[in-house]
Amino acid sequence: MKYLFPLNKLNFNIYKISIKNKIMVLVGLLIISCQTQNVVNKDKKYSKNQFQKNIRDYDIQAVLWQQLAAEHRALSYQAFNLAKLRLDTYLTKKKSTNKPLAIITDIDETIFDNSPFNAKMIKSNTNYTKKNWAAWVKLEKATPIPGSLKFLLYAASKGVEIYYISNRSSNHTKETVSNLKQIGFPITDKKHILLKDSISGKETRRQIVYKTKNVIMLLGDNLSDFSDLFDNKSTIIRNKLVDSLHLKFGNKFIVLPNPMYGDWETKGIYEGRYNLNSYQKDSIRKAKLIAY
Ligand SMILES: [Mg+2]
Fold first, then answer.
1. In which element (H, E) is residue 211 found?
2. Do residues 141 and 103 make contact, with C-beta atoms less than 8 angstroms apart?
3. pLDDT of 164-219, one tens digit each?
4. Ligand 1 centroid vs 74 CA: distance in angstroms?
5. Which of 105, 133, 260, 280 has the fewest Cβ atoms nearer than 10 Å?
6. From residue 184, how far is each of 50, 111, 168 by CA, in Å?
7. Number of C-beta neighbours around residue 206 at 10 A
8. pLDDT by residue (tens digit) across 209-253?
9. Which residues are CB-contacts of 200 (< 8 A; sequence separation ≥ 6)?
């Protein structure tokens, strides 16, 4: 077997070092070792103490952007202006089917702004739980995403039915309908609001609408609001699918911006692993950054 450094040569060189030099080398190694240990200890301290004090800090910029950036408002108006343009174009076309026209819309971060819920999680240093989400939903304080109310009222005035397909739990139907009504969203009878029972995927609920309606447009902040093609896919596949379907966006699919959460994070960044702790998530986020 060949060694990179022949052992006999290495041994010979070591024996040639004087005792004084050997002591200096040992002291040097000891200092380096201590310094390395300090860095490791600092990291451990950071992960166990400092980091736990700020588990949602990574979300601050996203929530501020959603709440305060005029660009968020502009993008929302842009989405609904485009939706109106497509709707008007569609209404001038000859009907290809006798089915009544319909639009399917998601609710959260598509027509409802829930950013105070995310802000609250940051301030109280807590992650999402069914319990803290339910507490927010019960307040019925979601506000409309800019442009959403005007667009859906316009569509309804043109005889287009609106179906609200959301992954809010069906246990929250009462509060959700009440919040929609308070804002003034149209067509909020229970037949038009399809919340989640047991299956997260929205395709089965979309199929119920497709049976009797001609769905001309879908609105959402999450790709799974448009097609089950996007369900449970990794970051790479999600991006490839969007490239292959690029002509759909701004046409049949109208996308709203949501930097705070979504499948892009849970299914994409964390690859569907829901049992990660905050420190592991932080490590993954940093590892996945693309720098130069
Ligand atoms: Mg949503």
1. helix 203-212
2. no
3. 999 999 999 999 999 999 999 999 999 999 999 988 899 999 999 999 999 999 99
4. 18
5. 280
6. 45, 12, 19
7. 20
8. 999 999 999 999 999 999 999 999 999 999 999 999 999 999 999
9. 167
- Tokens found for residue 249: 């966006």
From the CA of 93, how far away is ligand 1's center (Å)?
30
Reply yes or no on whether the pLDDT at 276 is more than 90: yes
Q: Is 118 exposed, middle or buried (0-12, 13-18, 19+ CB in 10 A)?
A: buried
Model-level pTM? Answer: 0.83
Write down all domains in the chain, each with its CATH number in brackets.
56-261 (3.40.50.1000)
d(CA 141, CA 148): 16
Give the per-residue pLDDT at 7.
Answer: 34
Place of tokens 């929609």: 180
Cα of 167 vs centre of ligand 1, distance in Å, is 8
CA dist 112 and 165 (Å) reads 13
As residues whose CB is below 5 A from the ion ligand 1, the structure lists 106, 108-109, 221
Angle at 194 between CA 135 and CA 67, to 5 degrees: 45
Please give the distance, rounded to the nearest whole angstrom, from the Cα atom of residue 100 to the centre of ligand 1: 25
Contact 228, 221 (CB under 8 A): no
pLDDT, mean of residues 134-150: 98
Pick from 242, 236, 273, 271: nearest CA to 255: 242
